[in-house]
From TrEMBL:
This is Two component transcriptional regulator, LuxR family. CDD domains: LuxR_C_like (cd06170), REC_NarL-like (cd17535). GO terms for molecular function: DNA binding. Residues 151-216 form the HTH luxR-type domain. Keywords: DNA-binding, Phosphoprotein, Transcription, Transcription regulation. GO terms for biological process: phosphorelay signal transduction system; regulation of DNA-templated transcription. PROSITE patterns: HTH_LUXR_1, HTH_LUXR_2, RESPONSE_REGULATORY. The lineage of its organism: Bacteria, Bacillati, Actinomycetota, Actinomycetes, Kitasatosporales. Residues 4-122 form the Response regulatory domain. It holds the Pfam family Response_reg. The modification 4-aspartylphosphate is found at D55.
Length: 223
């Protein structure tokens, strides 16, 4: 089954470029396009895409609010949102991740990265590039906890190993990298990640990373 993709961007030329790249792949099908957030919500309901490639700055309704309505509480459809941002990291990206986006991608990323990101998100994983994540969180360091605040009660539900895994997820490590770091199998890591998401009521690894920083468990710049 091909991955069904909806393109959302207010620039028609960009949508055309993305379409040409994606339709060259045998396992991806572009099922529709939208020029703003309101159109995106309507198209998601009508077309039931697997992945929504979502711009942030658009007229009528921006990508953050559209993401919130597409992936928010009570939404059990298949659509996952991959947010597009500019090289200097749009200030709304954090809000998009909080709203339920499964990751973010630079608009000038190579075609191979765009295709891979869509496959990753469609598979239920999160697009969490370590270098971009670190820059993003450093950029917003002043708005994140200092680490001196009380630890949220929810964190006490995690085992010591699950806390270790959460910290490594927040650093942007993949399951394979975490497995190597902790000297365990990749299957064991997947199990730990699943437990963390369930216990903290989080959607995916991206929200887990944001939670780790917002809770003060991890601080920007810390290793």
């Amino acid at each position: 089954m091909a991955i069904r993709v909806l393109l959302v961007d207010d620039q028609p030329l960009l949508r055309t470029g993305f379409r040409m790249i994606l339709e060259a792949e045998g396992d991806i099908a572009v099922v529709g396009e939208a020029g703003d957030g309101l159109q995106a919500i309507d198209q998601v309901r009508a077309l039931q895409p697997d992945v929504v490639l979502m711009d942030i700055r658009m007229p009528r309704m921006d990508g953050v609010e559209a993401t919130r309505q597409i992936t928010g509480p009570g939404r059990d459809g298949p659509a996952k949102v991959l947010v597009l941002t500019t090289f200097d990291l749009d200030e709304y990206v954090v809000e998009a991740l909080r709203a339920g986006a499964s990751g973010f991608l630079l608009k000038d990323a190579p075609a191979v990265e765009l295709v891979q990101a869509i496959r990753v998100v469609a598979a239920g994983e999160a697009m969490l590039a370590p270098s971009i994540t670190r820059r993003l969180l450093d950029k917003y360091a002043d708005h994140l906890p200092s680490g001196e605040e009380p630890v949220p009660d929810a964190l006490h539900t995690l085992t010591e190993r699950e806390v270790e895994v959460l910290k490594l997820v927040a650093r942007g490590l993949s399951n394979a990298e975490i497995a190597a770091d902790l000297f365990v199998s990749e299957t064991t890591v997947k199990t730990h990640v699943g437990h963390v998401l369930t216990k903290l009521s989080l959607r995916d690894r991206v929200q887990a990373a944001v939670y780790a920083y917002e809770s003060g468990l991890v601080r920007p710049g810390a290793q």
